Amino acid sequence: MSTTPLPPLPPIDPVKRYNLKSPVSWGIRDPERFRQLMDEAASLVVGGYYLGDNLFTWTRNLSLLEDDAFRHAWQANLLGPADEAIAWRRYVLCTAACHAVHLEGDFVECGTLGGTGVKTVIDYFGREKFAKTFWAYDTFDSNPTEVPQFPGQEAGLFERVQARFAGYGQVNLVKGLLPASLESRSPGRIAYLHIDLNDAAYEIAVLDVLFERMVPGGLLILDDYEWAGGYRGQKMAEDPWFSARNYRVMPLPTGQGLVIKR
Predict the structure, then answer these.
(1) Please, is 138 exposed, middle or buried when counting C-beta atoms within 10 Å of its C-beta (0-12, 13-18, 19+)?
(2) Could you tell me how far CA 79 lies from the centroid of its own chain?
(3) Residue whose C-alpha is closest to residue 54's, from 80, 79, 32, 86
(4) CA gap 179, 176 in Å, rounded
């Protein structure tokens, strides 16, 4: 069992409202017209709104901005506008970690890219306080899927990510194509599993290997599960995979999916 303490939550101001507005969303035909309309919509609500990452909500607490430890970890690890837009997704990871950190088993992320998800979770707790081993898998320098390469996904990325995690002795970065890269270096027990491979076949192949290693109560977050369009194939493949095991994925408004291991 982990001895990692949870980050303290500050006192709640009963009247304060937090807002987050990011210019980054996807699948928009007329970005300028969309921005004008959403700016107007944001001006018409009473507050507590989140606008970005294809999400517009209002009269929400926005706990992610009220949580000082998260806000500092998130802002310290921003690599670009997209990282700012997906703040709510990052907070889902951090709050999932608050549960999983008290279970037996390691943390695993499949689809690490620049390492921001892993590093934000660890920094949320405090690098020196996070007592779990965190495994991070990616091809890093190339993209084997049909999704276009992400910015920075090129030769040298792996070395840049290694440098980013200098001093993070609990992190194991594993470069290679999944699921083959799991064969030589992977944990036997998993408390937290985050899968973000942007491809149904690769995600199912990883689930085939790792899901049974998850401990009871372990949390699985599927980053793209509830996204439509080009990502819909992941839901189409994963729903029957989980149904065959008597599980149902919980869809989240952030576009993620959540499964609790029995």
Answers:
(1) buried
(2) 15
(3) 86
(4) 9
The burial class, CB within 10 Å (0-12 / 13-18 / 19+), for 65 is buried
Asked which of 22-26, 84-88, 138-142 is least confident by mean pLDDT, the reply is: 138-142
> Whole-model pTM?
0.95
Cβ burial 4-39 (10 Å sphere, 16+ → b, else e)? beebeeeeeeeeeebebebeebeeeeeeeeeeeebe
Residue 2 is predicted with a pLDDT of 58
Where do the structural domains in the chain lie, given as residue ranges?
9-66, 68-260
Q: Report the pLDDT value the prediction gives residue 147, as an integer from 0 to 100.
A: 72
Q: 7 in helix, strand or coil?
A: coil
User: Would you give the end-to-end CA distance of the chain in angstroms?
Assistant: 18
Q: What is the pLDDT of residues 93-103, one digit of tens each?
A: 999 999 999 99
Strand locations in 153-248 (E): 171-175, 190-195, 214-222
Cβ-Cβ contacts under 8 Å for 98 (sequence gap 6 or more): 6
CATH architecture of 68-260: 3-Layer(aba) Sandwich (3.40)
In single-letter form, the type of residue at position 243 comes to: S
Closest-CA residue to 236 (of 210, 205, 199):
199
